[in-house]
Amino acid sequence: MSSIMTSRQAAELDHALERNGWTAEDVKKLSEGERLRLVLDYLHGRARIVYENQENKVVVTRPKIYLRCVSGGEALEIDKTKGKKTLARSGKIFKAGVDLDFENWGLDKSGKPFGKMPVRIYEIVASGMFMQIFGWIFGTCLEDGANAEKRKHFIEEYRENLRKICMKNDEQIINFVQKFPDKLCKKYATFFLREDEDTGNFFVVDVYVHSDGGLSVDVARFEDDSVWSAGHRHRIVVPPQLTKTL
Question: Which residues, 6+ apart, have CB-to-CB distance to 118 below 8 Å?
Fold first, then answer.
């Protein structure tokens, strides 16, 4: 098993720990249980440190965990795409139905070509809105029941982060469905985030596996306040630019 740090990094960490008042006993305690996972949550913005009382006791509070990585270390890669295929015109693949809102909302249009792209699959383990589920990947914690104004502000504040976890064109979603059918959530939804580059609006593509194995594809607005149940173990597929194995 290869080391997670180079000898230089290990020396830098040792120096930093000493500089900040750590002892060998502190390092031993840090490696026990899930303490390192708590530190990782803090580093990636999924938790915050609160000083308690006058004794400066540190309490790490963890927000709700919305996702669990189910692809692990498996290398999953979407093929190079030309961007010409659209979901609205993919009835041969989605024989159980294609949502008419792809056309109604002006989303039936080709995208830009894109090279091969790795992806990671997550399972939804806490019920939430799209903004909470996808936002959790890059460390945001939109509160339950956030009103329309707060949801609008969320999109504007985190637009660049959202773009990094979007599928780049419809054809990438089609390619994933054809290449990795066994990775789709069975009998429930697998979600993909997309952006309409002409309007700047985000939307979520929902690929649904029916009991007979047939596929349908629907579309929803990203800012929708519907809560998706964790009990169904829906899945999401995202590129890993901002993701970590959790």
Answer: 75, 76, 77, 78, 239, 240
Number of domains in the chain: 2
Q: Is the separation of the CB atoms in 222 and 203 below 8 Å? A: yes
Same domain, 28 and 77: no
Q: What CA–CA distance (Å, rounded) separates 140 from 63?
A: 9
pLDDT of 86: 96
Partner residues linked to 237 by β-bridges: 121, 192
pTM: 0.74
Are both 151 and 222 inside the same structural domain?
Answer: yes
Whether 36 shows a pLDDT value over 90: the answer reads: no
Token look-up 């976890």 returns 165
Instruction: List pLDDT tens digits, range 162-200.
Output: 999 999 999 999 999 999 999 999 889 999 999 999 999
Number of alpha helices (DSSP H) and beta strands (DSSP E) in the chain: 8, 10
**CB-based contacts of 47: which residues, under 8 Å, 6+ apart?**
38, 41, 60, 61, 62, 63
Task: Note whether 130 and 13 are same-domain residues.
Answer: no
Burial state string for 184-195 with b = 16 or more CB within 10 A and e = fewer than 16: bbeebbbbbbbb
In a shared domain, residues 76 and 42: no
